[in-house]
Design a protein that fits this description.
Low-confidence stretches of chain B: 115-124
Number of strands of chain A: 0
Strand content of chain B: under 5%
Structural class of chain B: mainly alpha
Number of strands of chain B: 0
Largest sheet of chain A: none
Radius of gyration of chain B: 20 Å
Helix content of chain A: over 70%
Shape of chain A: flat
CATH architecture of chain A: Orthogonal Bundle
Mean pLDDT of chain A: 73
Structural class of chain A: mainly alpha
Distance between the termini of chain B: 63 Å
Order of helices and strands of chain A: HHHH
Shape of chain B: elongated
Helix content of chain B: 55-70%
Largest sheet of chain B: none
Oligomer: heterotetramer
Low-confidence stretches of chain A: 81-90
Chain lengths: ~90, ~120, ~325, ~160
């Protein structure tokens, strides 16, 4: 049953990845990365159970922390950088 | 009793997995960025919530594991809306406009003051 | 696969984002292969810090690009040559995960078997890194330290001195972000310290802890501005601390020599071998953590400040 | 450091951090407990240096009622999730997005943050920006906006502030 959940999450991760590649806007990509990060947290947490290693949860927690900080960082520095107009208007 | 808890936890895991999957479908089916954001928040909130609660039921009395799962859940529930809000705001300032449906309020365009005020090239 | 599309994406920003995904992915693989510590590092460093640092660099170089001449051919050939060399290198390597690989036959069984009785620490990776491979890890810490000195030498001293007139920080007006970050920063710091001191029992250790701690400071800096952060954490103190981290590591080695052992042999630090190893590892991890955290903070603050300066100049 | 750091916030931070440490560590030998104490002390010191010890980082005034609020929010969360999932499977034609400006009655930034985050947390509605006493909300459908205009959530968050 863990397996079923893991497969669902993997599929969701793959779909998010596709969204990150095709864009079309920058924000779509950031959104996809954020979602991918959340999925990874879940993935690692379930994997910890599947393999009987609850210490994986530490990794998951770090992931959640870092994911948030990375997204904020991306947005912060994006404000400095002028957006590429072509990519945006689409 | 343990059978009942197991069943509940399996159900939560499967429903959670399905919701995550739906959210992922959503970010492909929805037409533009702002609506995709809602799809993403589906997986962030209910999807991860159900999966993590499902895992919590499986801890088998290990308090540490339980506490860590709760911390992860709390953390996701606090950061996910914050991140999406920041993202939406940044997108608005970046010049992206949400698509509006039949209830568009023509009298007051609440969004017109957004945009690239602090940039010089605003040819839109 | 991610790496491939990475190479083809023209948009620099998009490629930075994809790097983030790439490290998330590889971390997933590491977890699958049961290399939790590596995954931990990848999670903390790859997904978080490196993304932010790369973006910082991007904003910097973005400003200079117009003036600079590009030599894409040279760059390309360098990349190709390196790539070919890497591929040639991997040809010699044993098949992935094959049990006859040298790493698996010689040292690994020894470490795994001996670790339990010599050091008595559940997390094998920590004991291997800090104890059997004490020298290597020491070398890595010194490398990190040297990197900081390099960055500081390049950026700090070349900086144009002018009055610190900081622009209003855009994110401080961001109510939600401000409040949520204020709530989150102390727990993140505590979690970093938890990772720091539980390196023996669960995945993680000084390096990861340092990165997490630094990222909490970076989060603060992103919201409250570089100058205020520089004041609050007081950069001179941070600089001293980063040297101190290396010193702590080194002096543990010397202490063990004074007690009659070889360099970095912690068994002699206490009457009991195992206790000695414990003490040695905790102190050394602390050294690593301090150095890494301060190194990251310094690099970030210096880079980010530089951006602020160039913004003013071009404006 | 203009603001006088209130002792209450320090104590609350210490309690929260200690709980996190104990909950995560699970080792109760003297060494790790003392290391924990040192860590908590260090983090409190850092928080003090960074000047983030105030009513915004330790929302004491909110803490007691928040549990009831969360339970209520949970229900709202499930409902809105279901509606969005339905829309996902029905396809983009079921969308009727709308942007609206809504008043918010909260006085403190903390209350506004809770309100805005609750709105974003429930799928189907996203806070785009806060301006003074109003916020701009983007919703997937008009019902969601109507629901928010009803002011139930607004009132509940307002109650948290008292």
């Amino acid at each position: 049953m863990f397996l079923a959940a893991i497969i669902a999450i993997l599929v969701a991760m793959a779909l998010a990845l596709v969204r990150a590649f095709i864009g079309p806007t920058l924000y779509d990509r950031i959104l996809a990365v954020n979602m991918f990060g959340t999925k990874t947290v879940l993935f690692i947490a379930i994997l910890g159970y599947l393999m009987g290693r609850p210490d994986f949860l530490d990794v998951a927690l770090v992931y959640a922390l870092i994911n948030f900080i990375a997204i904020i960082g991306v947005l912060r520095f994006f404000e400095y950088k002028k957006a590429d107009p072509e990519e945006e208007v689409k | 009793m343990s059978f009942f808890i197991d069943g509940l936890s399996w159900a939560l895991l499967i429903i959670g997995g399905f919701i995550c999957f739906s959210g992922a479908i959503g970010i492909h089916r929805f037409p533009e960025f702002f609506s995709r954001m809602h799809a993403a928040s589906v997986t962030d909130t209910l999807g991860s919530g159900l999966i993590l609660i499902g895992l919590m039921l499986q801890t088998g009395g290990e308090v540490i594991v339980l506490v860590k799962l709760i911390l992860i859940l709390l953390f996701i529930l606090i950061t996910s809306p914050t991140a999406s809000h920041a993202l939406a705001k940044a997108a608005l300032h970046g010049g992206l406009r949400p698509m509006q449906g039949s209830h568009k309020n023509d009298k007051e365009d609440v969004l017109n003051k957004f945009g690239r005020q602090n940039t010089s090239d605003d040819e839109q | 696969m991610t790496a491939l599309s990475l190479a083809f994406t023209k948009d620099l920003f998009a490629s930075v984002m994809l790097t983030g995904i790439y490290s998330l992915l590889s971390a997933g693989f590491f977890v699958l292969m049961d290399a939790v510590d590596v995954a931990f590092t990848e999670a903390a460093v790859g997904a978080g810090i490196s993304t932010i640092l790369m973006l910082t660099t991007l904003t910097m170089t973005g400003r200079f690009e117009n003036r600079k001449l590009h030599h894409p051919k040279i760059a390309l050939s360098v990349v190709i040559v390196t790539g070919i060399m890497l591929v040639m290198g991997t040809v010699d390597m044993p098949a992935f995960g094959s049990p006859s690989a040298p790493a698996q036959t010689h040292v690994a069984p020894y470490y795994i078997q001996q670790s339990a009785q010599d050091i008595d620490i559940p997390n094998i990776v920590t004991s291997v890194l800090a104890s059997y491979r004490g020298f290597d890890t020491f070398g890595e810490v010194v490398v990190v330290f040297t990197a900081v000195i390099g960055v500081l030498a390049l950026l700090e001293f070349a900086r144009v001195e002018r009055a610190d007139s900081e622009k209003p920080v855009p994110m401080l007006q961001h109510k939600i972000l401000r409040i949520v970050s204020k709530i989150l920063i102390p727990p993140i710091m505590l979690f970093a310290l938890y990772v720091q001191f539980h390196g023996e029992y669960s995945p993680g250790g000084g390096f990861q802890a340092g990165v997490i701690f630094a990222s909490s400071i970076i989060l603060y800096a992103m919201l409250f501005g570089i100058e205020q952060t520089r004041k609050a954490v007081s950069v001179p103190v941070v600089k001293v601390l980063s040297a101190l981290g290396v010193l702590i590591y080194g002096s543990v080695g010397i202490a063990s020599m004074l007690n009659g052992g070889t360099y970095l042999n912690y068994s002699v630090l206490a009457e009991n071998d195992v206790t000695g190893q414990h003490i040695g590892i905790i102190v050394i991890e602390l050294g690593v953590g301090i150095t890494v955290a301060t190194a990251m903070i310094l690099i970030f603050l210096t880079f980010a400040r530089r951006i602020g300066k160039t913004e003013e100049e071009t404006a | 450091m203009k603001k006088k750091t209130n002792l209450r916030y320090i104590i609350s931070l210490i309690v929260v951090l200690s709980l996190i440490w104990i909950g995560n560590s699970g080792f109760f030998n003297g060494l790790l407990l003392s290391l924990g104490a040192v860590s908590v002390a260090f983090v409190v010191f850092m928080a003090f240096r960074l000047n983030i010890l105030d009513e915004e980082s330790q929302p004491l005034q909110v803490s007691r009622r928040i549990i009831v609020y969360w339970l209520w929010l949970l229900k709202a969360l499930v409902e809105s999730n279901l509606s969005v999932i339905k829309r996902i499977w029905k396809g983009p034609k079921s969308l009727d997005p709308v942007v609206a400006r809504l008043p918010m009655s909260q006085e403190t930034d903390m209350g506004k943050t809770i309100y805005a985050n609750s709105i974003t947390l429930t799928p189907g509605t996203t806070t785009l920006d806060i301006e003074g006493d109003t916020m701009i909300v983007y919703a997937l459908s008009y019902d969601a906006i109507e629901y928010l205009q009803g002011g139930d959530m607004d009132r509940r968050v307002k109650r948290l502030e008292e």
